[in-house]
């Protein structure tokens, strides 16, 4: 890079992180890189590695209080692991060798979420170099978010719970933006509940149905009822709970055999109007009423969470408006509910950023139950998990300024 170009510390760190081949759950040196940067500016590092997963808990305290954590406690959270890149030949450049083309940085993890991590680290560096803080600033970084997510943030959250540590705020650096940086923040996520259902029958000859018990025939009316059920109506923050079948299988392959079993895999994405236990009970009621013999194996991968307006969201909105509000171009808002009536320049800021609760799960589901207000703020998410994943270089330093703006508002004695 030529000397006259402005220094771009977020870009440099994002490139270094993308260069680490950190396929879940392999951290591949990312946390060591981040940890070295944080310890240089006064963070205490604690490694909470578990079952091959790298977990870094790093804290910067405004005063030494032994093992006590000073409040407010604000956590910057994220993951270093990435999903597999897919076929190398379909990428325009090596997914683990960051490449810049036309002002865009390409590489696996560019958006999900190594840019977010780099922006957070640089935000902490700038903040602590310029001002004293009150309370505690912490990083919670794991290498197990894209996988089974059992030994990552979930594990660290459990340790924090055992220590009686209650965070006040958490920012997860997942790619939350929709069309322009900061146009959308995630303030909640639906819960996820799944089930492997085995319906038990009795195998036999199709010509002698009375000597067999067809599990497909038993399952289908019950399944039709489950598919047609309205589980709840959603609420102002969430769409209604959805039930989806992902796998269905039965049959021996022969056309003259009634199978002995049928298997069904289904998943609920549920909102705060329903509970996992309530949904399970309702499913069992349907199955029992239809007289099925079955084995149900449930998995619950996350409670829904919702952060309503509080200090964190206020700080996030103010920081985002401060950074992107000076843009000459008004963000396009045609897909944003609530923004359709906004026409005059300047007024768009009132409904900006959009509060979003859709999409899949994230590690916020493990942090929110500790008692924290949680938001997800990160780069544009349209390329995550895809071939040629990317992030706009201009967005990197601005994302870091947004994080810094939130930290200043919540952690510096002279709040804005
Ligand atoms: Zn992610």
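^ Assign residues to that structure.
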């Amino acid at each position: 890079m030529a000397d006259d170009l402005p220094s771009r510390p977020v870009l440099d760190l994002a490139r270094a992180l993308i260069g680490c081949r950190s396929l879940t759950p392999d951290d591949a040196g990312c946390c060591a890189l981040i940890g070295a940067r944080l310890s240089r500016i006064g963070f205490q590092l604690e490694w909470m590695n578990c079952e091959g997963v790298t977990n870094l808990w790093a804290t910067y305290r405004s005063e030494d209080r032994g093992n006590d954590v000073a409040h407010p406690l604000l956590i910057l959270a994220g993951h270093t692991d990435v999903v597999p890149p897919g076929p190398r030949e379909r990428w325009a450049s090596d997914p683990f060798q960051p490449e810049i083309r036309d002002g865009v940085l390409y590489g696996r993890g560019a958006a999900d979420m190594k840019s977010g991590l780099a922006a957070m680290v640089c935000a902490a560096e700038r903040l602590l170099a310029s001002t004293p803080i009150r309370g505690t600033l912490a990083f919670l970084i794991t290498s197990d978010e894209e996988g089974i997510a059992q030994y990552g943030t979930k594990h660290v959250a459990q340790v924090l719970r055992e220590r009686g540590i209650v965070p006040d705020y958490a920012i997860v650096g997942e790619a939350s933006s929709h069309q322009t940086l900061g146009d959308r923040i995630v303030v909640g996520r639906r819960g996820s509940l799944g089930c492997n259902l085995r319906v038990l029958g009795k195998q036999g000859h199709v010509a002698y149905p009375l000597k067999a018990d067809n599990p497909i025939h038993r399952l289908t009316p019950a399944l039709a009822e489950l598919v047609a059920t309205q589980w709840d109506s959603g609420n102002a923050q969430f769409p209604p709970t959805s039930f989806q079948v992902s796998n269905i299988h039965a049959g021996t392959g022969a056309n003259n055999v009634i199978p002995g079993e049928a298997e069904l895999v289904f998943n609920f994405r549920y909102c705060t109007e329903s509970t996992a236990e309530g949904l399970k009970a309702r499913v069992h009621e349907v199955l029992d009423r239809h007289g099925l013999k079955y084995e149900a194996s449930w998995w619950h991968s996350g409670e829904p969470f919702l952060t309503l307006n509080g200090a964190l969201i206020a700080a996030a909105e103010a920081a985002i408006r401060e950074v992107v509000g000076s843009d000459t171009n008004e963000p396009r808002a045609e897909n944003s509910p609530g923004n359709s009536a906004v026409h005059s320049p300047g007024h768009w800021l009132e409904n900006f950023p959009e509060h979003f609760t859709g999409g899949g799960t994230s590690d916020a589901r493990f942090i929110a139950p500790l008692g924290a207000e949680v938001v997800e703020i990160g780069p544009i998410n349209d390329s995550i998990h895809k071939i040629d994943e990317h992030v706009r270089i201009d967005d990197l330093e601005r994302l870091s300024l947004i994080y810094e703006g939130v930290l200043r508002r919540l952690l510096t004695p002279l709040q804005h």
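DSSP finds nine helices and 19 strands in the chain.
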